[in-house]
Amino acid sequence: MSLYRVQIGARFTVASIVAGLTALTASAGDAAADDLIVKYDQSQLWRLERPITEIIIGNPTIADVTIQSNDLLVVTGKSFGITNIIALDANREVVAERRVLVQRDERKVVNLHKGGKRESYNCSPQCNPMTTIGDDPEYFETVAKLSERKIKLSSGAGSADAN
Fold it and tell me: What is the pTM assigned to this prediction?
């Protein structure tokens, strides 16, 4: 995949920009039939043909896996990207191996662009701030801190008087 570099003051036609973006996304969007597609911050079940005792995750920053039972995995998308998961049995034989693609769930998501900064909102039905990798760092940190505070208040660990 080639990377495109844009210089300030460079002039591009809409057609050339669309053609470049299409070329970039075409190779990223080619999912094989046996790929496991997981949405960012969501989980997907993966049932195996026989019991397993061990899992190997290619890149645990992209996807996390928990063994729900000896033949059922829960795969959670943690960050955008592609990784793989290998499931082994008690004899360390490969039971299954799959590529995992973590993608953004575009349904009811609105992106607000302010210059070069992006803010993400979950709009189901009204729009509320959400944290998504790639958002403006200041916005991301503010939303993350407010979410942590709400969780503490809900669990009784925080005080309603805290700021």
Answer: 0.61
